[in-house]
Amino acid sequence: MSGLRSFVVRRLLLGALQTVAVVLLVFGLTEALPGDAAVALAGDQPDPARIAAIREAMELDRPAWERLADWATGLPHGDFGTSLVSGRPVSQYIADGFGPTLLLAALTVALLVPTGFGLGVLAARHEGRLVDRLISSATLAVYAVPEFALGVLLVTVLALRLGWLPPTAVGYGTDLLGHPSVLVLPVLILLSRPVCSLARLVRAGMIDALASPYVAQARRYGLSGARVRYRHALPNALAPAVQQLARTVDWLLSGVIVVEALYVIPGLGTVLLGAVAERDVPVVQGLAVVFGVLTVVLNLGADLVAHRLAPRAGVAA
């Protein structure tokens, strides 16, 4: 217990330092962006006096360290600032886009876990045989296709040619659950590569675990094959797979920009693209912090679960 407690404390401290680093990095990178938000808002033929007034209204004339201090102080209270374009709180942008993105991520993970783990265990059980070769070949082939290319292909075939599914979410608003057919193509695209990498990772972990001395000892004790596989081998194979799953969830929540843009889904990716196009720096900063903190939290949770499943794996803090 003392070893686990020490590991948790180290990871929590590291997570706190990573969160601070994310905040500083996000502010520094957005400050380094070319151009001027005041000039962009002033119009095509900006008047110097109007630009100066906009800069003063947006407090862009203040030193960067003062704006950083005010912004960082408000973050723990959920105050991400105010949009330069619309004047709305950034938290409203995040709340509006979080629902569709979270729905896509939840549906993908709900299908990813049983499919990825099931295919990995099935391939490991039949190592070197036809089933293993089919699963390995199919997962490698699908993983090699970029999401955007696969998305265009599926839209062309399933939506435009066959007419089975809607090609985009235009006209359906944010009530995606009320129109399940809209979610089929985006979830398939989001599921394609993660299920391949997870299945191959579980397969490799299961094969290594089944060849280990403690599994051989369990077999010598006369334990059934199912108990050896699922009670002794699978927990050790799950440790790296859990970390991969955490990275996948992080990508689903913060990296679905391509899929949301392709299917016109009003999620966080669409909000981020709009903010970048309008050079709405507070919205970009707020979304970047949310994505960064999610990454830190998910990887922290994955390390703790992996350490609990297989302490001998020595997951580094």
How are the secondary structure elements laid out?
Layout: H1 2-31, H2 37-42, H3 48-57, H4 64-74, H5 90-125, H6 130-143, H7 147-161, H8 181-210, H9 213-220, H10 225-254, H11 257-263, H12 268-277, H13 281-309
Describe this structure in words.
With 317 residues, this protein is mostly helical. 74% of the residues lie in helices and 0% in strands. The protein is built from 13 helices and no strands. It has helices at 2-31, 37-42, 48-57, 64-74, 90-125, 130-143, 147-161, 181-210, 213-220, 225-254, 257-263, 268-277, 281-309. The model is unreliable at 313-317 (pLDDT under 50).
Defining traits:
317 residues, mainly alpha, 74% helix
Please summarize what this structure is.
The protein has helices at about 1-30, 35-40, 50-55, 65-75, 90-125, 130-145, 145-160, 180-210, 215-220, 225-255, 255-265, 270-275, 280-310. The protein is an all-alpha fold and about 325 residues long.
What is the overall number of helices?
Answer: 13
Low-confidence stretches: 313-317
Whole-angstrom Rg? 24 Å
The biggest sheet, with number of strands, parallel, antiparallel or mixed sense and barrel status, is: none
* SSE string: HHHHHHHHHHHHH
Structural class: mainly alpha
Query: What would you call the quaternary organization?
Result: single chain
Q: Look at the structure and give the mean pLDDT.
A: 77
Bulk shape: flat
